[in-house]
Every structure is written in C-alpha cells, then in structure tokens.
Amino acid sequence: MIRRSDFPILKKKIAGRPLVYFDNASSAQKPMSVIRAVSDFYRKYNTNVHRGFNPLAEEATGRYEAAREAVARFIGARREEIIFTRGATEGVNLVARTWGETNLKKGDTVVLSLAEHHANLVPWLQLEDKIGFKLAYIPVKIDGSLDLAAAQELLRRPRVKLLSITQASNVLGIFYDLSKLIRLAKSKGIMTLVDAAQSATHRPIDVRRLDCDFLVFSGHKLWGPTGSGVLYGRREILAKMPPFMGGGDMIDTVYIDHFTTNELPYKFEAGTPDIAAAIGLGEAVRYVNKIGWPTIIKTERELTNYFLRRIKVLPFVRILGTAKPKLPVFAMVIDGIHPHDAADLLGSEGIILRPGRHCAQPIHDHYGVPATLRASLSFYNTRTEIDYFIKKLKELHQAFK
Amino acid sequence: MDIYAQNILDHYKHPRHKEPLPAADATERGSNASCGDDLMVALQFSGQKIKALSFQGHGCAISQAAISILTEALVGKTKNAVLAMDFKTIQSLLGVPISERRYKCAMLGLSTIQKAIKKAKA
Questions:
Q1: What's the pTM?
Q2: A179-187 and A148-155 helices cross at what angle (nearest 10)?
Q3: Cβ–Cβ gap B62/A340 under 8 Å
Q4: Number of other CB atoms surrounding residue A158 within 10 Å
C-alpha cells in the first residue's frame, strides 16, 4: 500500500503552499524507514566496516553486508557482484577506467544511444580521446523510441566492443526494452553495460534475465540516500578487471614493491565507504519490496495517463517523447515561456520542477530545443497535485502572453 | 501568481536592439551551459565610450530582459565604468530583487559584455 505519510518532507509547505515534488527523476524523496536507518547507524553503531574485531564493528559490518544482500536479491545478482558506489556516474566511470582502459583499442567502436545521460557519455568521450576508439550512436526516432533497425546495423559492424546504453531516458521518459539488443550484442561477443539510473525506479530489474555484463544505478533516485549507488558486474568479468581506486580494503597484501587485491566485491571498494548510505539503500530496497512493483507500476501508469490527458488539451505545451511504455517523466516545451522562468515562478508556488537539459544535451540538440521543463512523478504524487500544476501553468501562460 | 515586474516582461516580449551590428568593434558569445541561455553581444566604441550595443540569441525572461535593458543603459558609458558594474547594477536596472537561483541568468548579459570589452582592450 502507498502511504504519502511515510515521506516526512511531503508535509512541507513552501510560502504557505503545499510542496508538490515533481523532480523525482533528479532525486527522489526518502521514506522515514530510510531516514531512520541512516540516523540509527550514526546514533547506535557508527564505526568502520571490515576492520575491527569488536562488537560495534561486527554490527556495522553485518548491516552493511546485509544491505548488499538485499540489493543483490533486488536485481537477481550474487552478493559478490554488487559493488557499492556513490551512484550511477561512478559505476560507469569505474567500468570505463578499468574494463575500458584494459580492453578497448584504437579502431574499436563503442555504441551508445542518442538518449544517454552525460554520465554514460562523458566517461566514454574522455576515454575516446585517450585511446582513439570510435563512438557510434543509436538514433532516436521522433516519438522517442530507439531506432532498432539502425541499432542492429550498428551492432553488426566489425570491431564493436561495447554497447553501453540507458534503459530509460531521463528526458523522454520512455522505458527501452533492451533484451533484443543485448541478445544480438552477446551473439557478436560485444560487452553490454546498462544504465538503469532512471529505469530502476520504475521497473523491477533482473540482471540474469536481461543478461547484461554490467548495470549501474543510483540509490538516491530509488528513495535511498545520496552517496549510495550500485555497480553490478558479472563475476567472471569483475574477477579479470584491474582494480579502480587503490587504498584500504581493496587489497589483500601490500609490500613496499607490490600489492595483491582483495576478493570480490571489496577489490572495487577502496577506502571507507559511505556506510550509512549503503545501509540506507538496503532499507530503501526493503521499502520498495514492501509496497511491491505491481502497486508502483499501476499507480505510476494511472498518474502518467492522467498527466498526459490533462496536458493534451493545453495547446501551448508540447511533450518530447510520446512512445510507449511511457514513464511519468515529462519534458515539456512551452510556447513563449523559457523553462527557467517556468521553474522559478512555479517553484514559488510550491511546485518543484527541473528546467534545462537535465544532463542530456545531445537529445535536446536532436529535438532542436535549447532546454525543456521537466516534471517527473513518483508513486507518492497525486492527481490533485497534477490538477494544481495544470492550473498554475495556465495562469503562467496567461501572464506571459 | 507573482510574475516578474512589467518592465522585465516588456523587454522579454519586445527586446531592444536584438539585431546584428555590422559596424561592431567587438563581439562575444556567452552561455549558461546548464540552462541553455545563449547570447552573442556586439559592441561599437567611440574612443573610450560605448557608442552602440546589440545582441542576438535566446534565453529566459531574466537573461533576455537584462541584456535588452543593457543595450539601452550602457550607451554613452565608458568601458571602465561598464567593467566596474556588478550584480547590484543589474538588480537596480531590472527594478526587482533577483533571487540567488537566477543570479547566472541576470548576469549573463553583463558578463559577456565585460568579456568583450576586456578582449578589445587587450
């Protein structure tokens, strides 16, 4: 069951008006159980993990590893395949700097889509400069769907080594069924990385069924703490990869002239991790399990349909990305009003929206718009909030006419 | 809803000197990458003073109104006087308090003009 009262911030008022939080694709709000898990760590058993032979360290380590187990079950992985990161961005960078630097050569091709977030684009651009491989982009059709025919043609080209692709655009709000592309990639010996930063909050993930080699997501979009995130990697591949950052916990033995690495997953977790955030993420995953995906999907589908129905009658609003399955993420172009002004003025009315390019400039260039106003909803949003947003948007349009 | 002052909306809807300036002595492009505001300013000097100013580009009401107002307000001012201007100057020209979150929008025009002047002096 969905209870708004689980999220303390949703009671907040801005200048006397109720908070309408429509920026969930950027970062979602946290239920009380997650907030409590984080504060309990600091109040009751704060100490480092994997290091102390004492009861406190035992509890901290136990809870940290229990969070890893919870996340592993959540996406159908083994516990040693779950590497805690600061977020999806760090996950992609880790793969680029370890697997990428070791395996990509001059003349190779890495395939991305045009709908990538900068997090799954800039790390490859950085590496492209260094190594001299090529980047190729799967085109996006006008309705926001991936051009699958073009994608298949790209993957059949020689020397494609990696398909690194988003499972849902953070601008177009469309869920991409990647199974066909991953199957094709696999048959060609192409490695696959799935950016699930957006999709993980809208659909269940099963890495075995998806059959990808890597998958990344961020905890803070999944109703968990900031500073938490996950890189999933297939065990055999992680085992062969060189470590990312060097330091404590990622080593087995260290001598003055060489070192050996720790076992998985610790090999990729150098330094003291964000223990509280990881424990909070574990709690967020339990919270999602408690509500259940069918409830989340059904509620979000109803909100999506209602939003689209209400916005459709406004002739001055255009939504980018109309293909299905459409998630409750709406990038809008509004006649006569720059997204910044809309976000600023509607923000003063308590409606939290995001203006700009949402860290995805290429897809904005593709549609020929400098920026959009994005409303992104979560299961705790309501029809009443959508009604209020529509009313205020109409008033704003009137004032700018 | 509390919309911006009439002055700002007027300049946004009817920008002044939004045109090329063929006799320009200096041009400069300025943008706010995160939001997509993008301006090209052109200046014509007469000795140490600004003789004419124009701009092209697109952006939000605050950035567009600020540059539009500047194309009128800066004519006749010396280069040094313009270089000494800051956020306070812009706030008084816009005539309404500008919130922290709109600082970059409000300052884009002035900072681009200042860049153009510095380049021309160098």
A1: 0.93
A2: 20
A3: yes
A4: 8
